[in-house]
Amino acid sequence: MTMIQRGAILILCAGSLAACSGMSDRDQRTLSGGAIGAGVGAVGTAIVGGPVLLGAGIGAVGGAVIGNVTTPK
User: Fold this and answer.
1) Total domain count for the chain?
2) How does pLDDT run across 16-33, given as a tens digit for each residue?
3) CA distance 31 to 36
């Protein structure tokens, strides 16, 4: 991986973190639930065997829904 690619990845990661600052609590929980669900779904599908992208997609949707629904009022 070249220095330009590493720099681009670093800038994209920093920009994605900065985009979360103005979000409501419900939005943040939905986004973080989706991210955690995608990670768990991808790892789980890789361990069990199957299409990793499908597992990540299902996990992301499930995590986002759970994060949204469980937001305290």
Assistant:
1) 1
2) 767 667 888 898 899 889
3) 9
